[in-house]
Protein: Clathrin heavy chain linker domain containing 1
Organism: Cairina moschata
Amino acid sequence: SQADLVGICRNEDSTRQKDVTGPISHQLKCESLSLDSLSNHLAQLDRRLLELKKDGDGKYIPRQKKTKLEQELLHLLAIRDIAEAKRDKLKLRFTSVSSHFVYVYLFSVCIAYTLYFFFLFTSFSELFSSGQYDAAATCAINSPGEILCNEEALKNLKSLSCLEGRNLPLLKYFDTLINASTAAGCLPNLPVTLEAIKCALSEKQLNLVNHWVTQQRLTFSEAVGDLIYDYGKEEPNNMLECLALAQAAYGHSGAYKKVALCLCKQGRIAGAVDYIQQVEHFSLDDYFFLLENCPSTALIRCLSQQWIRKPPFSSMGATILSFISAEHKKHGFQLLEEMNNKSKHNALEKIILSDTVSTLEDWNKIAVTCAENKHEKLSQKIVSVLTSQDGVFC
């Protein structure tokens, strides 16, 4: 019908509007002969052609322009490489110049400090040589980092006073320095402390050392105690005083075994044993040290009495084994003999039976060692205690 024909023509017309660039195939005969339809189609093609030309100018680049841009890019990359090479050279030069500048700066600082310390020590030497000990001590205390109080400065100071009769001025300087340090709220360092004590003892000025120690004006260490202790051995008349002073130095520095030794050397055996009980860490080596340096019967007796009440290291058998297994058999046998002599209380038997750490085999080993070292009675006593236990055969 005519209506169907008109609908078909409209559908084809809408299809052509969607893609006007397609071929004109399958057109109806009526439209292919229609001048108006062909004119409209031609106008659409012209508009599409203009759009494509416009898009081509804006979206696409000619090959010649692309080649030109590539050449410009290569040129810019070459400029960048040259700039990076120059930068690396300048960076290397800057590093070299900086290192040289730092070296020159540090060298100048070292020279300045060297000159400063030279003039400082020269001034100090003049003050010391002229007997102005207060000013010299103040100069030493206020020196940067107490450089005039270190070991090297003290060696130079001793070289200044090496002339005959100059030890007393040096001692006076040390006394002034220690007093000035205390007044400034600090103690003299360890090198100054040691040199001051050496100087005082070389001049037989034990009373001055006594003053420094009792007033706690020194930096205490085990080395300080050793100096005073050794001086006491050289001067027997001052031995008791030196032992008391050394004991104080050892106590402040934590040398507990040497505190106990000083107490024993003063005859205060019971006090030494009580002190040992108060020390938290008094090792077996410390006992060895004490018995080697103070091998007294009184100390053995006191230790045995204390150990009967409270065995050391939780086991008396282990302690005796340690004694007789090392180079301290003599002391181990003395301790056992002392315990065995307390026969009224059967002390040795109670110790063996109450020892829950050491086995019967350990005590049998002790008995065998006693027999091998000519302590037959002691060995028999231990064996008799062991054989009294049911099921035990030695």
Residues 63-129 form the longest helix (67 residues).
